[in-house]
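Researcher: Please predict.
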Amino acid sequence: MHVEYSAVKLRGAKYQGDLARYVKAGSEVELVREPDNPYDSDAVRVLAVVPSQGEIPVSIGYLAKGAASRVARDMDAGRTFRGVFVGGGVDATPYVVVLAAGEGEDLKLTRLKHR
């Protein structure tokens, strides 16, 4: 299986109540296209489960603009993406690893088991 990936800065976290700081590194995140976003028609919102907010994923920010434009184009063409939250401290920019399977392949994320 061929997997493409990129580490992407999470932007706008402070406008989302800085909820990203409560997301556990290694957590899967949802990537949601927002073509009607008034600030960026290529916007890709990042949703994650934040323990203090319950089990429903909430917005923690957006993919940085350059990466979002490439991901948005491919999402609009029907390509599926997955995201994994990398983390970032109180003063550090949080990152998300964006993953996509090769054309015609499926991408399923599973946690590695430690022995």
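Model: The beta strands are 3-11, 28-34, 43-48, 58-63, 81-87, 95-101.
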